[in-house]
Every structure is written in structure tokens, then in C-alpha cells.
């Protein structure tokens, strides 16, 4: 029996782990599939568009040719005016004129664009040009942004649990270290002796049964009718216990013989897990300074790695780029030469956005508490003092 029960326990634990991880994996997998489908769609629509020479592009080339002819040996005299003309001319230029659609809207480029859409970063250096691409971009964002927020909320519960447990363990360890430092050897030995003496004096009695309590009552033997009632009461309890035990055995037999019922039970548990999304994030209570420190360390790690493939970035520029990305600001002033390498940081971006989201949530809670205190303080100041009039 022992050999057969161990594999069954292993199978049940594996099933429990699977159904516990299933909701989280379902959200992440759906987001990945949604991103890949969007990449295929935009690479087909925007990458295969026909490049047409517009009138604006022709006038731009004419003005550029005119300024190039104007350049001569004595250009140093009008150097400032020439620079201003060049700057004004290039401000009128559209970046789409100098982009090959097939190169920009490759599969990895389109995947990078989709990630910037549903993460609400939107750098601005890649955007749809065709009318169908713009309409599909709006439709894609309409469903992708809620899915992304759902993934962030789901992963926020996991991160909130990890942060709260680690912070509580750190506080317990800190209190133990402080207690060991404050407690000297002689005082601790005296306290331990007093505790041992107090524990030796304490006598713990086992709980009495119903019959023992009733027998100890006065006049119990004089009333045999009540004694019979008590016996009947005990017999009813014993019978009820037997019924519950048999019902449990029958239910176990049902679950083992009828797997559909077991599946229904596991499905109901999975549905309960879906309903619990976002609950752990609301319970999180850690110092805001700790979250700021976590964000600083998290961004610093990426800022140290990113310049390895982005040669035009140093640590400070990479730190600024990661912060703008994780906070979903996305100015687009810093451009990536190799966006496909940055796609490998997709998990980093999701976790980092979640950490920033948790920090903003904690900051929001602290601000609400501060506003409550300020309003209550102002209300107490404005409240008129009660005057006691003589009767």
C-alpha cells in the first residue's frame, strides 16, 4: 500500500502545482500569442506597402539641391545662416521618406512595435503609415492594453507576495538580532530560569469527555433518566461520526471512480484563483523607500548590460532609457540600433513595469493617507470650540 500511495501523492501534488500555475501561464501565453499575431499582421500590411514619391519629398529634394549649390568657398561668412536654413529644411522632412518599409517592418521590428503599443510606451520612431495599419493599430491597442494590464495585475500578486514575505522575514531577523544584542548573558540566563520554573508549575489537564463532566456533577446518580438521555446523546454523536466518516469514504470512492467530478472540483478551484487576482497587491504594505531602492537596483542592472549591444549608449543614457520605458513615458528621443536584442528584455520590461506599478500604488496609498491627515487636521482647526453656558 505504501508503494502505491507514494506515486499517487506525487501525481496529486503535480496536479495541484499545475492548476495553481495554470492561470498565470495562461495570461502570459495569451499575451505572447497576441504579440506574435500582431507582428505577423503589421509586417504584412506595413512591410509590403508601395513607396510613392510625394510632392513634399520632391520639393524637399529641390531645396536641398539649392542649398548644396549655394555652398561655396566663402560659406564661412554666412555659416550661421546656412546652418539655420539646413535645420529648417530638415525639420520639414518626414522620416518615412528615408525608411525602407521591408527593413523597418520586419517580423522583429513589427514585434517591437506591438510591444510598444500594448505596453503604452510608444517611442514614436516606428508608427503605421497606411490607413489600414492605423485602424488596425487602434483595434490592436483596444484589446492589447487591457490584456497587458491583466498580466501586470496577475504578476503583481506574485511580486507582492514575494516582497511582503521577504520584508517580514527581514523584520523578524532584525528583531532577533536586536534582542540578542540587548540581552546580556546574565540577564538572559535569569529570564530562562524564571521561564522554566513558571512552566514547571503549570499543569495542563486533558479535556474531559461529556460523560466525565456529567458524572462529576452533583446528583447525577440520583437521576437515571437524564443519564439515559446522555447515553442516547453520546450514541447519536458516535453514529453521526460514523456517518460522516462513511460519507468521506464514499466521496473518495466517487472521486476515484468518477474522474469527471474531480475535474469539476479542480476547475472550480482554478476559477477561484482567477477571482483572487489583485487581492495580494491590495494587501501589500512595505516602505516606499524600499520600493524606490528596488527600482534603482533593477534599472541599474539593465543599464549596465544595455551598452554592450547599443554602442551609442553609456550607463547614464541607458539608465534614462530604461526609466522612460518602464514608466511608459516613451519620448522616443533615444533610438535603439538593435531593437531585436531589446526584445529579449521583454520579460524584464514586464517585471519592471510591475515593480514601478507597485511603487506608484504604494505612493498613491501614502498620498491618500497624507491627504486624510491634512483634511482632518484642517477640520479640527476650523471646528469651533464648545462653550459651556451656566444653567
From TrEMBL:
A matching Pfam family: Ion_trans_2
Domain Potassium channel residues, every copy: 96-159, 294-364
Membrane topology label: Multi-pass membrane protein
Gene3D superfamilies (UniProt xref): 1.10.287.70
SUPFAM superfamilies: Voltage-gated potassium channels (SSF81324)
GO CC terms in record: plasma membrane
Protein's name in the database: KCNKI protein
Originating organism: Callaeas wilsoni (North Island kokako)
